[in-house]
Fold:
Amino acid sequence: GTAALTTEDVIGIDGGPDDRRGILSLTPIDEVAIMACPDAMVFYQREPGPENALRVDRWLTSATVLGDLTAALELARFLAREPEGAREPRRRALLLFDALIQENDSDEARVSLAGWYLTAKNEVRAPEKAEPLLRAAAARKAGDARVMYVAFALLGRLPGADMEQAKSWLEAGIDGDEAETAIRYASSLLYAQPEHRDAPRALSALTRWWEQKQEASALNELAWARCTSPEAEIFSAEESARLGPQLAAVKDTGDRPAWLDTVAACHAAAGQFEQAIEVQQGALAAVEKDYGADSPMAAGLRKRLERYRAGERAVESPPGMEN
Structure:
């Protein structure tokens, strides 16, 4: 339902005390919680820009000031993106993350802050600060902490990482019965540094989760690796031609531009460039509509589309190597 909302529906209309609609109807409410602005990020993704960044900032700040910790975490994550229009985003994001960790012992904040330290492209970047944050959260089996620890450790991008611990978590997770965790560990093993990589085992794990459990996310990971890898032991035009149509036939693929991106890449890897162009154009149109033409995902889709038009397959470096 939220996807069908218009700007007017979300922002609302202020026609006076008795005629407030949308988010403006909350103006007289004394207590604002995260439920007062559940569509803030959907709204911003659809209509980014300085003015709307300021609106989202205000909505989440209002809930944060009134003690809503979920809103505080969402605000910190939003500000960490440093959207144009937000007020002092970097300084406030760091303060919020610190408060959530020190005062509320939030493992979600630890994981989010660690991710920012690891991937920031400015002076915030501090990989050496990420390891203790992830280790603390991972010790309590928090969310994505262990998966992130393992992924960045195997990529050689987590200074101070305990490799024995990382491998222990990997072994427990990749053969476990929790699909999402096992699939992500398999991907980490597939894209690890050469001394840690085990492509046959990773490919086998992904294949098993798809063929035996029908986990479509495993198929997407498997197909993407097979059709875009620069490594000869992973890339396979034959497997691309087999896996691409299987992914295209999955019920949810048409609603997932990232999966359509994989389908297009498989077509290109199999030499079917006309089909690749057609599928990629559809994925790009969907992303531009939902996230804007200037979004990072749109840029990646556009880059690969140009390769298909030139009669070339997509070749992608392992995650974390360039981005």
About this structure: The mean pLDDT is 85. The beta strands are 13-14, 20-21. The radius of gyration is 22 Å.
